[in-house]
């Protein structure tokens, strides 16, 4: 029923902090395994798994406790991938979150205006590209000129560096009618700005609020007193998206994303930490550095930690 996989790469997600802080499952007490996703090779097979997989085959997996050199994955949950490339890892959580949320909640169609916050991040990069594939006009917020350049390279029509530009003023000036869809993962003041920028019948999709994850409760004081009135005035809506509630769509999304990735129709940017102060993220001991790097807003693309290949030599 199961196969054992040796991890070669594991993905870093903003929600790693929520999980380790016990916000997702208050019944779990430390110590417990953390991490959500990985990719590696099959090193051993259970009886029923041997009919579907072979030792050495590349597989990806989404399961709690993924931060491990070896992990046991139920064969029905393993995802065959063409090779053990970190680019495929970017699709497991980040890619599918963007794909499914925009498909199910975004109602994208040609000519709509889409605003993506944290657009150069792990999931933002996919929201930008998928919105462009739907023939939308895409605006992306980011924190550096380097990130602005990256966003232009993946098709973003209007990158906004919020460190040097006033996002609210730019949106008022360039998009006086507002934006039709917001893909929002920052929270706090960025969330409030996004609500204020919605067009008539605009839709805001909340996929996270990273600015509040490091507080004690995980929540930040917001600007919600006038929220009902703001939404009513514009016939606008806010929808939350949590990937676990959309697993019925997951296989379809992964299949399409893998095809686009293999056909080079999709940029799957990976940040292995080469530019981090202490260098590349290598080994499980570097996971904490990778998470800090993400919360400092330094990454371009999906942050991935590489596990030394030597751990695969024995089971």
TrEMBL record:
Traced from the root, the source organism's taxonomic lineage reads:
Eukaryota, Metazoa, Chordata, Craniata, Vertebrata
PANTHER family, A to Z: PROSTAGLANDIN REDUCTASE 3 (PTHR43677:SF3), SHORT-CHAIN DEHYDROGENASE/REDUCTASE (PTHR43677)
Pfam families in UniProt: ADH_N, ADH_zinc_N
Which CDD domains does its entry note?
A: Mgc45594_like (cd08250)
- Provide the gene name from the record: ZADH2
Q: Which family does it belong to?
A: Belongs to the zinc-containing alcohol dehydrogenase family. Quinone oxidoreductase subfamily.
**What Gene3D superfamilies does UniProt report for this protein, alphabetically?**
Medium-chain alcohol dehydrogenases, catalytic domain, NAD(P)-binding Rossmann-like Domain
Q: Where is the Enoyl reductase (ER) domain?
A: 7-305
* Identification of the protein by name: Zinc-binding alcohol dehydrogenase domain-containing protein 2 isoform X2
């Amino acid at each position: 029923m199961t196969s054992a996989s040796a991890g070669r790469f594991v993905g870093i997600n903003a929600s790693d902090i929520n999980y380790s802080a016990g916000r997702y499952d208050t019944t779990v007490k430390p110590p417990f395994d953390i991490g959500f996703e990985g990719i590696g090779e099959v090193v051993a097979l259970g009886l029923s798994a041997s009919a579907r997989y072979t030792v050495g085959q590349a597989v990806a997996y989404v399961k709690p406790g993924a931060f491990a050199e070896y992990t046991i994955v139920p064969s029905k949950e393993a995802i065959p991938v063409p090779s053990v490339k970190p680019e495929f890892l970017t699709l497991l959580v980040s890619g599918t979150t963007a794909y499914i949320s925009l498909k199910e909640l975004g109602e994208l169609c040609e000519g709509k205006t889409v605003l993506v916050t944290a657009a150069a991040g792990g999931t933002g990069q996919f929201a930008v590209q998928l919105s462009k594939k739907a023939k939308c006009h895409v605006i992306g917020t980011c924190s550096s000129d380097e990130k602005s350049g990256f966003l232009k390279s993946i098709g973003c029509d209007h990158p906004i560096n919020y460190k040097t530009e006033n996002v609210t003023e730019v949106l008022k000036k360039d998009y006086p009618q507002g934006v039709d869809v917001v893909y929002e993962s920052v929270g706090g003041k960025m969330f409030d700005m996004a609500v204020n920028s919605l067009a008539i019948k605009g839709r805001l999709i909340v996929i996270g609020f990273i600015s509040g994850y490091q507080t004690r409760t995980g929540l930040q004081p917001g600007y919600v007193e006038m929220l009902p009135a703001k939404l009513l005035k514009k016939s606008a809506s806010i929808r939350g998206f949590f990937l676990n509630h959309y697993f019925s769509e997951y296989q379809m999304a992964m299949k399409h994303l893998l095809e686009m990735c293999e056909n080079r129709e999709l940029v799957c940017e990976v940040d292995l930490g080469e530019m981090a102060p202490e260098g590349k993220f290598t080994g499980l001991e570097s996971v904490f550095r990778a998470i800090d790097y993400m919360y400092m807003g330094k990454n371009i693309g999906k942050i991935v930690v590489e596990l030394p290949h030597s751990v695969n030599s024995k089971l």
